[in-house]
Amino acid sequence: MTDALALYRSLVLIRRFEETILAEYRRGAFSGTTHTYIGQEANAVGVITNLQPDDIVVSNHRCHGHFLAYGGDPRALFGELMGRVTGVCGGRGGSQHLHWRNFYSNGILGSTLPLATGIALAEKMQGRQTITTVFAGDGALGEGSVYEAFNFASLWGTPLLIVIENNHIAQTTPLALGLAGSIAGRLTAFGIPSCAVSTSDVLEISSTAQALIAEVRHSQRPQALIIDSARFGPHSKSDDTRPVEMIEELRRTRDPLTIHGNRLAVSARQAVDTEIVALVRAAFEQALSDPPAGGAL
Amino acid sequence: MTSVLDALNNGLQRALTDDSRVVLLGEDILDPYGGAFKVTRGLSTVFPERVLTTPVSEAGMTGLAAGMALRGLRPIVEIMFGDFSTLAVDPLVNTAAKLRWMYNDQVSVPLVVRTPMGGRRGYGPTHSQSIEKLFLGVPGLRVVAASHFGDPGELLYRAILRQDDPLVFVEHKLLYGLQVIDAAAASDFEIERSGSAELFPAYRLTVRGAPPPTLTLATYGYMAELARQALVKLAFEREIFTELIVLTQLAPLDAAPILESASRTGRLLTIEEGTLSAGWGAEVLARCSESLGSRLAAAGRVAAIETPIPAAAGLERRTLPEVDDILREAEKIGAQPHA
Ligand SMILES: Cc1ncc(C[n+]2csc(CCOP(=O)(O)OP(=O)(O)O)c2C)c(N)n1
Ligand SMILES: [Mg+2]
Questions:
Q1: Which of A297, B56, B136, B299 is 20 to 30 A from B26 via CA?
Q2: In whole angstroms, what is the distance from residue B90 CA to residue B79 CA?
Q3: Which candidate in B23, B95, B103, B109 is best for mutational testing of the A interface (most A CBs within 10 A)?
C-alpha cells in the first residue's frame, strides 16, 4: 500500500484529468465519446494500489480512472481521446478501449466479466502468480454473460477480484429500475464471497481491497468488493438527468478528494494540487501537438 | 481410408500433443461420451487437465476463451450445434475479433470456435441451420469450413496452431461420416489445389480426361459432396462438363480460384446449404461480376429456401438444396452439352 500523500496524488490526477476532458470537449479538442470518473476516484485508487506489478486489470467504458490509477500515461490517454499516434492504442480504440501492459478495457457492458475470468484462468493454468481484477458498474449487472462468468469463476476457481462500482445509476436509469434482489445476493448465489463498503474514503476502500486481494491470491478463488459510490458528473459529456441539488449534495458529502485531503497538511496538499495541475496541463498540451493517427489500416 | 470425423479428432489430438497451450472447452466433451458428435472422443482421457467440460454457457465459454487466448493459451471452443453460435456472437464479434486491432496490434487472440452446422438429419428448425454467413464479413474474424476434400484434420490443426486470430471452424454434421477424398483416393477425378492460399487452400475438381469445362461450380463444406455428385451426373448423363471449386476459407474471402475458373468457363453457379439472401454465394457473385464483367456470361445460386428447416424428412428435403437443384440450375444458366 502506498502512503497517504501518494494516494491523494492519484485521486487528484484523475480528477484534474477528467475535468480537463470535459472542459476541452466543449472546446472541440476531442471527438467521440467519454465517460468521466469524477466522484469515483477512490475506487480505482484504493483497489489498484494494492495490486502487484504483474497483476491484471480489466476495465469498462468508464476506464480513465482505472487506467491512471494503474500508472497509465496521461499524455497517452489524452492522445488516445484526440486520435493521436501517441495515443494508448494509436487512436484505434478511443476512450473505452485501452490496453497497456496488463490493463485491458472494453466498452461492451458485461463482456469483460467472461474475459477477465478467462484471463484469470489462463494465468492460473500457466502457473503465473497473478490475480485479475475486473471493474464493473451496477448497470452491467443486467447482462446475462455476467452470471455465466460468475458461475465459471466460482466453479473453476479463478483468482479473480470482482469490483462492483455501484453508483446507483446506469446512464440515466436509477438502480431501482434496473436491479431486482441485491448485488451481494447475486454473488452469494454463485458461492462468491463479497464484501460491501459504502464510502468514498480511499483508505477504507484500500484496506478492504487489501484483505480481499490477499484472500484471492491465497485461495486462488474469486472474491467480490461491492462499493457504494457516487458519480458526480454526467454519464458521458452533458447527459445528467438527475436534479442539481442531488449532485451538489453528493459533491458535498462524498468527495474522495475532500475526505482524504483533509487528513493531509494543507501545505503538502497544496503542493500536490499545484504539481498535478501543471502535469495534466503539460500532458494535454503535449498530446495536442502530437501528430494525428495515421499509418496503415 | 479415414472418415472426416476421425480426421478432425486426429487434428485435435495432434494439436493438444504438439502444444501444451492448447485447451479444449465445450459441453459434454468428456469421455466416455466424447461430445455430441464424438469429435472430441478420447481426448479428455489423454489430456484431462486441458479438456474442460463446461456448463451450458456458450456466451460465457467463448468470452472466457477470448481471455485465455489473450493471455497465452490457444483455446478451442466446441459449440454443440452451429445454431447455438448465435449465443457466442457478442464475445466473438465485439471482443475476440476486435482486440488485436483495437489494441493497436499489441495482442493476439488465437481462439478457434468449432461447430457443426447443417441439416438433413431431421433435427428441426433450431438444430439444422447453416448460419455461418452471419460470421462472414466481420473484420478480424476468419471463417474456415471443412469439407471431405484434402485433409480436414490438417485444416483444423492449422486453424489451432498456424495462425493467431479468432477463427470460426465450420463442420457439417453429414461430413463426419464421409470418407476423406484426397488426390490418391479420387480415381475418377483430378483434385488439385487452386490459388495461392497456403493455410486454408481451395481445391479444384474435374472429371479425369474430360473436355474443357463450360461451367464453374463453387461451394464449400458438405455441399461439396452434393456438387461432386452433380458434376458426375452432368458429365456422364448430360455431357455437360463442369469444374468444381471448393473453398475452405470463407472469410476473409479470396475469390481468386473461383475467378480464375469462371474466367475460363464464363458461367458460375454458387452452391450453399444456408438460405439464399445475403449469403456466401451473393458475395462470390458480386466479386465475380466486379472482376469479370461481361466475361461472366451467366450466373446463378443454389441455396436453401427461406423457411425455417422443418423436422419432417420430406419437408426438410424440399427446404434444403439437393443434387437435382444443382442439375436444374446448371441447365438453367445455359451450360451447354459438349459439341
Ligand atoms: C452491451 C451494452 N449495452 C449498452 C451500452 C450503453 N451504455 C454504456 S454505459 C451504460 C450504463 C452503464 O452503467 P453502469 O454499468 O452502472 O456503469 P456506470 O456508467 O454507472 O459507470 C450503458 C447503458 C453498452 N456500452 N454496452
Ligand atoms: Mg452505474
A1: B136
A2: 14
A3: B103
